[in-house]
């Protein structure tokens, strides 16, 4: 393996915080790398690509998938190096004061500064604990809803009673043939308004029940029937289904900070305890997005953009103390002069 290339800033995480960090660091003429565990950029928004997002300033409501496309396009404006399918397992510093990011591939990534933008951690859906269930993941056992069209005019069983499960039930109720919800507790755990909407619709709730058996179709390729068992009475019922969605929450991998030998201050056993300027307790290490916690924190996608810009500005000054505190605004920035001319031409084509 050849010697690692040194970057001005390496961003761990390719979600909204990481992508805007990449854009802004490019604006500040920093040599930038993004490292993302998943096979694609976009972060947690991939969990709800069909959901409408309303709270990004200056943007009309749009589906998550469209927002991902726009964030990625913006994040790649200045052509950062992008490494996908790479889990950073630990962050350390060498004798020269450079950060060493140890990847699961065996590569050690070198960087002058680091921005941690891993959100709530690496999220993996909690799988259905029924023997043989995994073989149906290629047919009709789903752990997320990537397209509402897939469920049109079908009988859908949703397992789970939290906000996400109820939200998907409400989204699918108008377009599916029938929606069932199975939940192990006597009451649904979602927001009151969501629960009220669900109960006023046509969805059928099977409370205090568990999935106890999956019955395959004759060709064994898909689930045709699901057995539900009532926890109190032991009574069973068999549902004929076309699709099943499992929403039992996510397992969160929070090993990165724990494996790192640096003295990083932690809040609530996971988050980086930082400042409103996105600084951590380790010089040269910054944070942006949900992983950052401080007294003025705003946990919105819109808030993550300020985190990212603050982190980049502090990283720039860490490398170059006499650098401007902030980048010049885009409307007067020479770096966009040529691009702006091309955009103006397109307006009049």
From TrEMBL:
Enzyme class: oxidoreductase
GO molecular function list: ferredoxin-NADP+ reductase activity; flavin adenine dinucleotide binding; NADP binding
Entry-linked InterPro entries: FAD/NAD-bd_sf (IPR036188), FAD/NAD-binding_dom (IPR023753), Fd--NADP_Rdtase_type_2 (IPR022890), Ferredoxin-NADP_redctase_2 (IPR050097)
Reactions catalysed: 2 reduced [2Fe-2S]-[ferredoxin] + NADP(+) + H(+) = 2 oxidized [2Fe-2S]-[ferredoxin] + NADPH
Listed EC numbers: 1.18.1.2
Keyword set, alphabetical order: FAD, Flavoprotein, NADP, Oxidoreductase
Chain positions recorded as FAD binding sites: 36, 44, 48, 88, 123, 290, 331
Organism domain of life: Bacteria
Cofactor(s) listed in the protein's UniProt record: FAD
Bound cofactor: record note: Binds 1 FAD per subunit.
Domain FAD/NAD(P)-binding: 7-313
Quaternary data: Homodimer.
HAMAP family named in the record: FENR2 (MF_01685)
PANTHER family: THIOREDOXIN REDUCTASE 1-RELATED-RELATED (PTHR48105)
Family according to the record: Belongs to the ferredoxin--NADP reductase type 2 family.
Name of the protein in its database record: Ferredoxin--NADP reductase
